[in-house]
Write a structure and sequence with these properties.
Layout lengths: L1 H11 L2 H15 L1 H27 L4 H14 L8 H20 L22 H17 L6 H18 L4 H21 L13
Helix pairs in contact: 1-2, 2-8, 3-4, 6-7, 6-8
Length: about 200
């Protein structure tokens, strides 16, 4: 991992910008997996009113309700688990970055923008705020309407948890997370603007 950053540093002349470039390349490489996930998420938003009707119609029959919801997913090519794969792939990257930023001597004392040391937490707490805020924005954009109160609470707690974790993480990892989120938000903004075709429930 250090060799990769040294290469990007030789191009940009800055370890901070090397992190930015590395993040963008990772996001671009993940596009073949991210696009199907965004497509599925957009369709999930579009069929949410129909899901709500099914849940109301079969509220006393959970088995039939689940069956009807799954049929609706299949008709609209929606995979509720599609968002897991890009995240799972990024976990080893996050772990490798965490280890590198803590133990990479070249980053010690190296600043970027307002950050004084990329190997240490942000003493001004700006990065944790940005991490939580961008995570929240990305979550809200992807969140279907009329979700349950439990899901709404989860969507609030996750950004808070991310912000809290970033307080003690190396700033370099926070930069990666924020840039990754901003890229994701831009993707979502343009992708969700495209109208989709929604197929309805077949009564039986």
């Amino acid at each position: 991992m250090g060799t990769i950053f040294e290469y990007f540093f030789s191009i940009t002349g800055s370890y901070g910008w090397a992190i930015v470039v590395f993040t963008l390349i990772v996001k671009l490489l993940l596009l073949p997996l991210t696009i199907p996930q965004l497509n599925s998420s957009r369709k999930m938003q579009e069929i949410q009113p129909q899901i709500a009707k099914i849940q109301e119609k079969y509220k006393n029959d959970p088995q039939t309700m689940n069956q009807k919801v799954m049929e609706l997913y299949q008709k609209n090519n929606v995979n509720p688990m599609s968002g897991c794969l890009p995240l799972l792939i990024q976990l080893p990257i996050l772990w490798a970055l965490f280890a590198m930023f803590r133990n990479y001597p070249a980053l010690s004392g190296v600043g970027f923008l307002w950050l004084k040391d990329l190997s240490k937490p942000d003493s001004l707490y700006i990065l944790p705020i940005l991490s939580g805020l961008t995570t929240y924005i990305s979550t809200v954009i992807a969140m279907p309407k009329n979700v349950s109160s439990d899901q709404t609470m989860m969507n609030i707690m996750m950004p808070i948890l991310i912000a809290w974790m970033t307080v003690s993480l190396p700033s370099g990892l926070g930069v990666y997370w924020v840039v990754s989120n901003v890229f994701q938000i831009v993707q979502q903004y343009f992708f969700y603007r495209k109208p989709g075709s929604v197929k309805g429930e077949t009564d039986s």
